[in-house]
TrEMBL record:
Entry protein name: 2,3-bisphosphoglycerate-dependent phosphoglycerate mutase
Naturally occurring in which organism (per UniProt): Staphylococcus nepalensis
UniProt-listed Enzyme Commission number(s): 5.4.2.11
Family classification: Belongs to the phosphoglycerate mutase family. BPG-dependent PGAM subfamily.
Reaction it catalyzes: (2R)-2-phosphoglycerate = (2R)-3-phosphoglycerate
GN (gene name): gpmA_1
One of the record's GO molecular function terms: phosphoglycerate mutase activity
Record flagged with keyword Glycoprotein: no
Domain of life the protein comes from: Bacteria
Amino acid sequence: MPKLILCRHGQSVWNAENLFTGWADVDLSEQGRTEAITSGKKIKDQGIAIDVVFTSLLQRAIKTTYHLLDESHQLFIPIVKTWRLNERHYGGLQGLNKDKAREKFGEEQVHTWRRSYDVAPPNQSEQQRNDYLNDRKYEHLDRRVMPESESLKDTLVRVIPYWNDQISQQLLDGKTVLVSAHGNSLRALIKYIEDVSDEDIVGYEIKTGAPLIYELTDDLKVIDKYYL
């Protein structure tokens, strides 16, 4: 029977510094590396044989993936990288300290940007947008597709077609699939897989660096889920 493993990357250096990260390509912190290594050991201890991995284009997710596979002795597994699993784009908030953002925009406004389902933060600056458009990671993207800011709803709109076209097809073949990604791209998947309401998904928390296992039926209905 198919098995889906969702793993949010370990703590990043900007997580540790309380900064809005989004598409900023920052590294794992030392704690984040430890979280990923520990999770890889848990996968090994449980004897979970992974068939294919999907991850984002951001190094904190990619490095988490490698730690998971290294520690579970599965570095040979195919890894597919896609921008569609990137973290939610935080627009003009990226790089700002969250406390200073609250001082600047107000507690209520920042809370709305962070926790509402369909309200996006302010757009990134023209310089920030040009930096992303000139990044080799995204040279294959049509400029009209590159987001300037995203709500959770916007993130779901770009993630779910990839789930339907790519990830779910591997599961329908009975494979064990690891999706190593980010808090909001994984929340978008969870909302879709579990049919979580718009209101409930905004408060849904996903542990960093901790594999969340879904046992699925052959037609991808959820039988059970649990953290390792």
